[in-house]
Write a structure and sequence with these properties.
By secondary structure, the chain is of the alpha/beta class. It has 6 domains: 6-108, 3-Layer(aba) Sandwich (MutS, DNA mismatch repair protein, domain I), CATH 3.40.1170.10; 121-252, Nucleotidyltransferase, domain 5 (2-Layer Sandwich); 306-391 and 530-557, MutS, DNA mismatch repair protein, Chain A, domain 3, CATH 1.10.1420; 422-518, MutS, DNA mismatch repair protein, Chain A, domain 3, CATH 1.10.1420; 563-762, P-loop containing nucleotide triphosphate hydrolases (Rossmann fold, 3-Layer(aba) Sandwich), CATH 3.40.50.300; 777-855, no CATH class. It is built from 26 helices and 27 strands. The strands form 5 sheets. A 7-stranded mixed sheet has the order 13-23-24-25-21-26-27, sandwiched between helices.
Length: 856
């Protein structure tokens, strides 16, 4: 390092402590980067790469960004998963001896972003920590630095269960021990796609002990301590807005594993990985950003408590019954800003005057919201507003202290309202009167000299001056004007009188700006005392916003309140898929009933591709989730049990990150359901076994159905193309066949999307290919091949029957006639079969059924 200049030595020393981050090194009006940082940043940010001398023989790669626009560049890097260490000058360059002292004042990471422009308004920005213990359990901690939220959960079931829990929230960064196994790190990065950071310290100092008050379990303290240490290390400032840790009792919420959340497209679609087309996009009728974030949390964790579910339903009903009051409330919520994040910015210390204006406007709407809520004629509504504190004293402070239209910068004045501080008023008066005096002096000088173009101006270098064009210099009196500056076409002067007044004006302005900044900091500290009350108010307003949104969507989309009971009955009348029905263009959605009584555990669904089997299955899962999160549901009526878990295997996709094929993913997801489901669960399995050979797939599919039926007894929907499985209803008493109705019309298949009892009679595969506009020659050839295969199957059955008959005749000739005996049930069934009038598929099904009878 000795070969470098002192400044480069300083840079390298600081960089050594932040090897995993881009170091934004402040030099004048720029943040500069050097060496590898410069090479990488120039590519990632598409900025010019230069070089400079640094004491060594080679020039040092260098690039930089202006400090006033650095936020945009930091946002780009954070969005790509990088970290940025911001290194500032921490002493006055004029007072410095040698190199100006510099320190990293903040480490910005994907999980600790605070700047509003880097955040999604309707999305939490979670930092998580994952801690493993010797007994195989994990703690998962969550923190949203922008809102101060802290929570923690204990996860059993191994590393996969921990990843599934992390997948349940929009985690941007995960903090782990540096001793975590490489294989686990790869799985974290691959499956979650977020930044992984390391922290080995887990202690919680006395200053933060209040955050874990009442929590004594060592695992929770260790897990939260890891995250807290990482936040302290990166932020290097007060964290007064952090809220006490909430323990997430996972057994109080419906469990949705990562597969089910993805397959059901709850918050984003599989194809475009965006919100549009997801269940969240349909349900989001919230007005505020904080309400939208709460809605997503409710969607991620549906309730298991019937009492809490019905409380939410009661409140939705209250909003639904009062249309005009609800519309008034929605109008009032429009003026409420993001109180949750405003509280975070206040405590964090990066709030400006405009933020406080937003807070003032928001608080001014709370009395109106309270008044509107009190007009709702429904007993359940009272608990929504009875504990709301409008924080009148805080609003009054903001009204008295902050001006109406403050600038975004808090160090340039114009922030504090007139009348708030007498001394500030004096300075402002002196400045204002001084400027009036300047205007009067300008008029006086024009009159005395006769120079109409004479003007008095000001700049920061020369202060106030009198400017006269060269053509008018001859009219100036001798001796009274002192030349200050020469321009191309004019001269600038000062007079003793002007200089004296300038001193008074500038002193007043300078002191006014300094005092304003001090007063603003004082106001901010006073506002800081209300942070926790603001956070509680934000939570109450968010809940109101979500519930009114549920009422809004229920009225708009004709949703109805579900009923719950302890019996294992699913009875949905005219149920619909909440997303599909909203995106259909020019068509109306075909509703269907779903009925599974206590004696029916499995619905075996058959029918052609594209007929609606997957939609039918998904709509049950989405209806269950919507109901248990507090929403009304898309059906005429719904009677449901409370499901503890939902397992979904719908759709086919390779897991390229893990190197797993479609079939392996299918088997893993099916096994996850079989290993964790209870009789209170819901299982949806679509086309299990199609990723392997026909007989392998059929055998696996049947074995899975039998296992669920015999050992789990969960409510299950199982769709299949293996028509042979439809005979299982003869062996499994709690299995019922249903099919999606389709009709053939003029050589083409017409999907009716209606669910009917019984098994489907055809697959219509060639017809579906025809709908996909396959070449006519290909369709014709497929039809010929199908006819040959069907004929071959018929001949095979006929030949088999003929052989049996000939053998029977031969035996009769060789042996004496047997004694007459009663016909067996099997023989009776065989006699009644009319093979020539059966389809090949019907014949195969019958043969398969009879074979099973013989075995049993």
């Amino acid at each position: 390092m000795a070969q470098y200049t002192p400044m480069m030595q300083q840079y390298l020393k600081i960089k050594a402590d932040h090897k995993d981050a881009f170091l934004f090194f402040r030099l004048g009006d720029f943040y500069e980067m050097f060496f590898d940082d410069a090479l990488k940043a120039s590519k990632e940010l598409e900025i010019t790469l230069t070089s400079r001398e640094g004491g060594s023989s080679d020039r040092i790669p260098m690039c930089g960004v202006p400090y006033h626009s650095a936020e945009n560049y930091i946002k780009q890097l954070i969005g790509k998963g990088f970290k940025v260490a911001i290194c500032e000058q921490v002493e006055d360059p004029k007072a410095a001896k040698g190199v100006v002292k510099r320190e990293v004042v903040q480490l910005v990471t994907p999980g600790t972003v605070m700047e509003g422009s880097m955040l999604e308004d309707k999305e939490n920005n979670y930092l998580a920590s994952l801690t493993e213990f010797s007994d195989g359990t994990f703690t998962v901690s969550y923190n949203d630095l922008t809102t101060g939220e802290n929570s923690i959960a204990l996860v059993t079931g191994g590393f996969d269960a921990a990843i599934s829990e992390l997948y349940n929230r929009p985690v941007k960064e995960v903090v782990v021990s540096s001793e975590m196994a490489e294989e686990q790190l790869e799985m974290l990065e691959g499956r979650l796609g977020c930044t992984v950071s390391f922290e080995d310290r887990t202690e919680i100092e006395d200053a933060f002990s209040g955050l874990t008050e009442g929590i004594h379990q060592e695992k929770f303290l260790t897990g939260f301590g890891r995250m807290l240490q990482y936040i302290k290390h990166t932020q290097k400032r007060a964290l007064d807005h952090l809220r006490p840790v909430q323990v997430i009792e996972l057994q109080e919420f419906m469990s949705l594993d990562m597969y089910s959340k993805r397959n059901l497209e709850l918050v984003e679609t599989l194809r475009k990985q965006g919100k549009s087309g997801s269940l969240l996009s349909v349900l989001d009728q919230t007005i505020t950003s904080m309400g939208a974030r709460m809605l997503k949390k409710w969607l991620e964790r549906p309730l298991l408590s019937r009492k809490e579910i019905e409380t939410r339903h009661d409140q939705v009903a209250g909003f639904l019954e009062n249309y005009f009051e609800r519309e008034d409330l929605r109008e009032q919520l429009i003026s409420v800003y993001d109180l949750e994040r405003l509280a975070g910015r206040i405590a964090y210390g990066n709030v400006n005057a405009r933020d406080l204006i937003q807070l003032r406007h928001s608080l001014s709407r709370i009395p109106d919201i309270l008044a509107t809520l009190q007009t709702f004629d429904h007993p359940a509504m009272k608990q929504l507003f009875e504990t709301i504190d409008p924080l009148e004293s805080l609003k009054q402070l903001l009204v008295e202290s902050i001006g109406e239209d403050p600038p975004p910068v808090i160090k340039e004045g114009g922030v504090i309202r007139d009348g708030f501080n007498p001394k500030l008023d004096e300075y402002r008066d002196a400045s204002k009167n001084g400027k009036q005096w300047i205007a009067q002096l300008e008029a006086k000088e024009r009159e005395s000299t006769g120079i109409r173009s004479l003007k008095i101006g000001y700049n920061r270098v020369f202060g106030y001056y009198i400017e006269v064009t060269r053509a008018n210099l001859k009219y100036l009196p001798e001796g009274r004007y002192e030349r200050k500056q020469t321009l191309t076409n004019a001269e600038r002067y000062i007079t003793p009188e002007l200089k004296e007044k300038e001193s008074l004006i500038l002193e007043a302005e300078e002191k006014s700006v300094e005092l304003e900044y001090e007063l603003f900091l004082e106001v901010r500290e006073r506002v800081k005392a209300y942070v926790h009350k603001l956070q509680f108010l934000a939570e109450q307003i968010s809940r109101i916003d979500v519930l009114q949104g549920f009422a809004q969507i229920a009225e708009k989309n004709d949703y109805h309140r579900p009923a719950y009971h302890e019996k294992r009955i699913v009875d949905i009348k005219q149920g619909r898929h909440p997303v599909v029905e909203r995106v259909m263009k020019g068509e109306s959605f075909v509703p269907n009933d779903i009925y599974m009584d206590e004696e029916t555990d499995v619905l075996l669904i058959t029918g052609p591709n594209m007929s609606g089997k997957s939609t039918y299955m998904r709509q049950l899962a989405l209806t269950a989730i919507m109901g248990q999160m507090g929403s009304f549901v898309p059906s005429e009526s719904a009677i449901l049990p409370i499901f503890d878990q939902i397992f979904t295997r719908i759709g086919a996709a390779d897991d390229l990150v893990s190197g797993q094929s479609t079939f392996m993913v299918e088997m893993l997801e099916a096994n996850h359901a079989l290993s964790h489901a209870t009789e209170k669960s819901l299982i949806l399995l679509d086309e299990i076994g199609r990723g392997t050979s026909t007989y392998d797939g059929m055998a696996l599919a049947q074995a899975i159905v039998e296992h669920i039926h015999q050992h789990i007894r969960a409510k299950t929907m199982f769709s299949t193309h293996y028509h042979e499985l439809t005979s299982l209803d003869l062996e499994l008493d709690r299995l019922k066949n249903v099919h999606v109705r389709a009709e053939e019309y003029e050589g083409r298949v017409v999907f009716l999307h209606q669910i009917k009892d019984g098994a489907a009679d055809e697959s219509y595969g060639i017809h579906v290919a025809q709908l996909a506009n396959m070449p006519d020659s290909l369709i014709d050839r497929a039809a010929d091949l199908l006819a040959q295969l069907e004929k071959g199957a018929e001949n095979e059955v006929a030949a088999s029957a003929e052989d049996d008959q000939q053998l029977s005749l031969f035996v009769e000739e060789a042996r004496p006639a047997p004694k007459a005996k009663a016909e067996t049930p099997l023989e009776n069934q065989l006699k009644k079969l009319n093979l020539m009038e059966m389809t090949p598929m019907d014949a195969m099904n019958e043969l398969y059924r009879l074979k099973k009878q013989i075995k049993s």
